[in-house]
Design a protein that fits this description.
The complex is a heterodimer.
Chain A (H helix, E strand, L loop, with lengths): L4 E4 H11 L4 E4 L7 H12 L3 E4 L3 H13 L4 E5 L1 H16 L5 E6 L15 H5 L10 E3 L4 H18 L3 E6 H5 L1 E4 L27 E2 L6 H21 L3 E4 L6 E4 L3 H15 L4 E6 L1 E3 L3 H8 L6 E6 L5 H9 L5 E5 L8 H15 L1
Parallel strand pairs in A: 2-3, 2-4, 4-5, 5-7, 6-7, 11-12, 11-14, 14-15
Antiparallel strand pairs in A: 1-8, 6-13, 10-12
Helix pairs in contact in A: 1-2, 1-6, 3-4, 9-12, 10-11
Chain B lengths: L23 H14 L6 E5 L14 E4 L5 H11 L4 E7 H7 L1 H9 L5 E6 L29 H4 L5 H6 L4 E8 L3 H19 L4 E7 L3 H4 L3 H15 L3 E5 L6
Parallel strand pairs in B: 1-2, 1-3, 3-4, 4-6, 5-6
Antiparallel strand pairs in B: 5-7
The chains are: A alpha/beta, B alpha/beta.
């Protein structure tokens, strides 16, 4: 049996990135994710990599852009207000088709908000976030083990599709400690970065990394080519976990920390004989909407309860998936507050009463 | 037959889009020649700006990366830190470098990043059509300063080479211009020295080029060159501002 180790969330994310072959990190301090740049400042040079504390989040994401454009596995991390500043660069990464990993350890908003855990950036992560018509694949681990396992996947997915990948966790995942096991990950066969601008080095042509297409016909073709990548990600990369949905009358839908609260609530309600299940999206984009739609079509499923740490953002995706065929209720806490098990149980009981 | 002059291998064989009398094409050529003569074309990565030179990546005969407006020094940091043996340069105008990208250029210089910045100062926003730049001279007219730049509301023009030269990480700052052959020769010497110091690992190197923009200044090209020498060079003195490089070896 492999050794179980106690780790802190932010440090798991940093260590897993180094283990995944990330050799450059560019960041700017912001609570509650400062352990990531701190860990990187110590460990990245030891791994032969580059750590730069940038002057701002704008600079950090553009250092990532430069490193990614020259063929490196590059990463940055921040928390909600800092991620807003990085959105310009994320849009450029997508436009220039550059792989990179961006970690958002979410805190309460809007504005300075709070430094407590939140999921208020769901829309921003899953709808693009910056200017233009684009998608960022978004991974939402709910445990530190899952965070450790998904970081390598994040880099591989980014390289496979030449698109930035966001790892979206709430501040609780970033700050908590729990045991994990470092697993060897098989890794994917990845395309060679023949497009990288790293000096011609004997190549017979210049590589020019850009997101500029002055001719609207060219820009439309570029967008359509990006759309093909999004379609491929939707077809190949959607992930979720299902618990006790086979006979469930009410299905809880939740990601990240509240999914753990929802799971406990579900198990408690099952002990009372109430048939409750859980669907936990692991990729927020692509969203497992097709599976939710299938579940909505099952006779035993009478309704859904979406549980989030915001005012109801993933709720839109749940409603789109269910498409009016079954009622969808919502329970959320926001601004840095975390839902209690008892609150979710109560919300689930109410939802069940309404649909029975 | 003796070849007296030929196009530099440092530029692609592509027509430039710049206006008649513009300095950009000249500076492109000087950079291309310098990279070629120093044997750096095969290892160079150019970081291109937003502004009139947004197409520079289609002109330089080396790998290039198009940056967001003002962010070229951050992009260059990402390239050079991960590829320390390469020749990395940013090519930036006055809006890009002295306005929206001020933080990036100051901190790249502060950190002593080992790349070269070529700063084209033409005292106006070219691509967007003649708006006031941070380097627009007092009294100089612009489409957003119709009565001329008024220090009471718009402040005074920034001398970037002098400002950056206060930072320890900057080892070389030289202000040149491109209005006649002697000045072109001086400009090329400055660009080559900057690249040489970069490759010797000396620190951050900066060449500011005073460059005419006849279109947005509303002048004939020769008149623009005269105006540059008379007015711009009076406020932005030509010459070496700082040189801590010694012999690049």
């Amino acid at each position: 049996m492999r050794k179980r180790e106690i780790w802190k969330g932010s440090e798991v994310i940093a260590e897993a990135a180094i283990r995944a072959g990330c050799r450059c990190f560019f960041g700017y301090p912001i609570t509650p994710q400062n352990e990531i740049p701190e860990y990187m400042s110590l460990k990245m040079p030891q791994a032969g990599g580059v750590f730069v504390q940038a002057e701002s989040e704008l600079a950090a994401i553009n250092m990532v852009y430069g490193a990614a454009a020259s063929g490196m596995r590059a990463m940055t991390s921040s928390s909600s207000p800092g991620i807003s500043l990085k959105q310009e660069g994320i849009s450029y990464l997508v436009g220039a088709q550059l792989p990179a990993v961006i970690v958002n350890v979410m805190r309460g908003g809007p504005g300075l908000g709070s430094i407590q855990p939140s999921q208020g950036d769901y829309y921003q992560a899953t709808r693009g976030g910056g200017n233009g018509d684009y998608r960022t694949l978004t991974l939402a681990p709910a445990t530190l083990q899952e965070a450790a396992d998904l970081m390598g996947e994040a880099f591989d997915i980014a390289d496979t599709y030449r698109n930035p990948v966001m790892v979206l966790v709430d501040g609780l995942i970033g700050q908590m400690m729990e045991p994990i096991v470092w697993e060897d990950r098989p890794g994917r066969t990845l395309p060679t970065k023949v497009w990288a601008a790293q000096g011609r080095r004997g190549r017979d042509h210049n590589n020019f990394v850009t997101s500029l297409y002055m001719d609207p016909a060219d820009c439309e073709q570029h967008n359509l080519a990006l759309a093909e990548k999004y379609a491929a990600m939707e077809a190949n990369e959607c992930r979720w976990e299902e618990l006790m949905t086979d006979d469930a009358r009410l299905i809880l839908v939740s990601f990240g920390t509240p999914a753990r609260v929802a799971e406990t609530a579900m198990r408690n309600l099952r002990q009372e004989g109430l048939k409750v299940g859980l669907l936990r999206p692991i990729t927020l984009w692509p969203f497992p909407g097709r599976r939710l739609g299938e579940l909505a079509g099952e006779d035993h499923v009478k309704g859904f309860l979406d549980v989030e740490m915001n005012l109801g953002q993933m709720l839109d995706d749940v409603k789109l998936a269910v498409n009016g065929s079954k009622p969808v209720q919502f329970y959320g806490r926001c601004g840095g507050a975390i839902p209690h098990v008892a609150e979710v149980q109560e919300a689930a009981r109410r939802a069940l009463e309404e649909v029975e | 037959m003796t070849v007296i002059y030929e196009k530099t291998r440092g530029l692609q064989n592509t027509p430039l889009h710049y206006c008649p009398g513009c300095g950009h094409g000249i500076v492109h050529k000087l950079i291309g020649e310098s990279l070629d003569e120093l044997g750096l074309l095969d290892t160079a990565v150019g970081i291109c700006p937003v502004g009139c030179a947004v197409f520079a990546g289609s002109y330089f005969s080396c790998d290039c990366i198009e940056a967001a407006h003002g962010r070229a020094p951050a992009v260059a940091t990402g390239v050079k830190r991960t590829h320390p043996d390469q020749c990395v340069f940013t090519y930036q105008g006055d809006g890009d470098l002295a306005s929206i990208g001020t933080a990036e250029i100051v901190h790249a210089a502060m950190r002593g990043e080992k790349f070269t910045t070529i700063f084209i100062n033409n005292a106006i926003y070219g691509m967007t059509g003649g708006q006031m730049a941070p380097t627009t001279l007092v009294g100089q007219k612009a489409t957003t300063a119709p009565d001329g730049r008024d220090p009471a509301t718009a402040g005074w023009p920034i001398r970037m080479a002098e400002m950056l030269s206060t930072l320890e990480g900057l080892v070389y700052a030289h202000r040149v211009c491109v209005v006649d052959i002697p000045h072109l020769n001086e400009a090329k010497k400055a660009i080559k020295r900057a690249f040489q110091l970069q490759m010797a690992g000396a620190g951050f190197t900066f060449v500011e080029v005073l460059s005419p923009c006849p279109t947005n200044w509303g002048m004939e090209p020769l008149e623009a060159n005269r105006w540059l020498m008379e007015h711009m060079a009076a406020y932005y003195p030509l010459g070496v501002i700082k040189d801590m490089g010694g012999e690049p070896g």
